[in-house]
Amino acid sequence: MLRAKHFDNILVGEPAKLAENIDFLGDAIDRKVLFHKKEVSMVQFAFSAEKGLVTNSSHGDIFVYVTSGSLEIELDGKDMTVNEGEFIILPEGLPHSVETDENTRAIFLVVRDKDMDCYPEK
Fold first, then answer.
1. Reported pTM
2. What pLDDT, in 10s, does the model give residues 53-74?
3. Strands 29-36 and 104-111
4. Coil, helix or strand for 18?
5. Residue 42 — φ and ψ, nearest 5°?
């Protein structure tokens, strides 16, 4: 099996579908860190129906790309829907929450200043 220097929890050296890389847990949210450095992390989420992330603000800008399903996102008091194949940028420091009515997969790419670290190294 090939190993990549910077990517974890993902098939390397062969075509793969991100949607098949993570499963729904039923009553929880599954999360796989695919790439992590202090300045940038790529995290894959599988949100089971009726699950989400409570209101919080991040220590970096977040690029959210929905690979299947849809997410209901509240950003700084404004509600919006992000559907499969769409993305949204959640700016650093602005309060946001994430919910879904259906099983949904998404990729979160977090870009932050060098001195911030949201997902500590394993």
1. 0.82
2. 898 888 899 999 999 999 999 9
3. unpaired
4. helix
5. -120, 120
